[in-house]
Amino acid sequence: MNKFWIILWHTYVTKLKAKSFIITTIITSLLVFALTNLNHIIEFFNKDEKKTVGVIDQTGTLYEPLQMQLKKSGESDIRLQSFTGSEDEAKKNVQRGKWDAFLSLAYDDKQLPKATYYANTIADSDTPNKLEQSLQQVKTALATAKIGLKPEQVTQLYESVPFHKVALEKNAKTEEELNQARGLVYILLFAMYMFVLMYGGMIASEVATEKSSRVMEILISSAPPVQQMFGKIIGVALVSLTQFIVLFAIGFSSLKSSGKELLQFLGFEHIPISTFVYAVIFFLLGYFLYATLFAVLGSLVSRVEEVQPMITPVTLLVVAAFFIAMFGLNAPESSFITATSFIPFFAPMIMFLRVGMLPVPFWEIAVSLALLIVTIGLFAFFGSKIYRGGVLMYGKSTSLKDIKKAIQLTKK
Amino acid sequence: MSLRLEHVTKRFGDVTAVNDVTLSIPEGEMFGFLGANGAGKTTTFRMILGLLDPTEGTITWNGHEINYAKSHLIGYLPEERGLYPKLKVKEQLIYLGRLRGLNKEAILKEIEYWLERFKVPEYAEKRVEELSKGNQQKIQFIAAVLHKPKLLILDEPFSGLDPVNVELLKEAVIDLKNNGTTIVFSSHRMEHVEELCEHLCIMHRGKPVVHGALKEIKRSFGKKNIIIHADIPLDELKDFPGVVKAKTTAEGIHLQIESEDVSQHILAHIVNKGFIRKFALEEPSLNDIFIEKVGAAYE
Fold first, then answer.
1. Which residue among A216, A221, A408 places its CB closest to the CB of B13?
2. For chain B, what is the domain count?
3. What phi and psi values does residue B207 have, to the nearest 5 degrees?
4. Which InterPro entries match (chain A) (predicted)?
5. B158-211: per-residue pLDDT in tens?
6. Are B82 and A411 an interchain contact pair (Cβ–Cβ within 8 Å)?
7. Chain A residues in contact with B51 (beta carbon < 8 A)
8. Range A51-158 has CATH code 3.40.190.10
9. Considering B166, B198, B218, which residue would you say is the last residue of a domain?
């Protein structure tokens, strides 16, 4: 078997068997599962959390409409309880914990409802907000009835303006499609960001570990450094892919069984296949670009503790790309986004964002991809040179000056 | 059929680490590299292994350049020991062995043989970080030899080992040599080189200052040692013509003399003065030669 495959396989299997990997995967899987079942979980905890609110209705006419209104807007977790005693007694009821709160209803001088809400703390904004909204409806009904408006007229008044956005370009996405695309693009961008950071760091520290444990010298005397570098990069890529597939499978299947609305919101159903294809292409290229950089940087340090400061500049680039992409989600057509989508460091995220949301001419995608591939090629070429020298270099090394030193080592 | 270095020079910027080294190591020989720290031994080894390219000159093994296609013929024990701390000994050796082109079954057999031979069969399933330094070194040695290399390069193989383990390793090295492996090793322990090598080379600041067969080197060195144990005052011998160095010991004196003839004059001088328990004429030790050649160059 070719040495490249031996290195790749070794990297893959040892990473997969590592306890830290298994634990991280389990924890993340649980998180994904929890996240996709969030509505069930919240429901479960809220089951017993009905709020009882006492009501002192000084008008004698507001309690019924308010109760009706609450029911109409489907607020089943607030239970109203009419109370005829004094406010002091009511306050005591709250303090003793019989009620969660009490509401005092009255008319103001214009004969319209007003209310005061009493609770031990007013940290919970949910209950008073719901009560306020319902009371607002009651008030609107009363006020409009007073000036003689019919309920239909009121409905007309509050109906929202029909406002349609229509894209004139033939391939442009409709508004609905755009919303769905935004959801998916956001998730994929975030995944890209997370995976580049996590696994890029893993590669850098992997290389640094081999160097610091000095096993590197045996390794480079057995197999060419270039094969080692790429064996490692692709091995870790497979690890990340494995983890991604596990998480995706869990997320997707639990979404399918629990939250159809969420699935629709993300728009997995109407997204063209090409978006997924581009996602994979840009994801892989982005990964290779950064992974090569991380591997080279890892080869320059002698101890694992020095990895972090060394890779920080590259990490910041990834973060910058992510934030530009976040900005681009709402303004994908701005010339800033168009420009950055050709810069190789940003292209994997930004060009993908554009492809996902806009009709982008194919030549633009091709140019961006070509630039990206050429850059990866250049990095791989120089990277493997630096790597070859870097792995023989020991001593304190936290500056980029070492790149020069490393290249010098590989010269004649 | 041999390892040949011809006019090999390596410069790092302005620093010349190895300067015009020409050596030929016949197949099946054991060749010793001696030198103080920084003399250029490790750099020379790295060039032989192809990890560094020589600035000038060529290195060939049986007439061909050494590259990764031949890595299954070459074994290497680096001076800086290192293994994966978290991996089990067996997993580790399987990985390193496969990188040297061996298949798994063959590796397992070799692992069993070597662990048995080094009297540590129970370590196969242990993680390297759990082993003592000396035992890690044994594992590292196994990693260097399990693919039965034709050319074995050992950088300071015996440093940091206790005498029992030094013997174990030495025997293993001698066995490998008897099976036809060409072995190049470096050390600053003279007695190991003296004991194991037919040919050697003393490096100093990148240049070989002494190079050749051990016997030749000793003979051409000229100077000899005399050891005298006697109950008579011997201090006056320090100024005896032909005596280069003298060192008083508890039982007598050690002298270094310019040539064999001087010993006869000294013997004649002291023979009637009293009781002499021991009078021995000895070959110079490698240590003497090393200090003379490298120490002199320091001044």
1. A408
2. 2
3. -115, 140
4. ABC-2_transporter_component, ABC2_TM
5. 887 888 888 888 999 999 999 889 999 888 778 888 888 888 888 888 888 888
6. no
7. 217, 220-221, 392
8. yes
9. B218
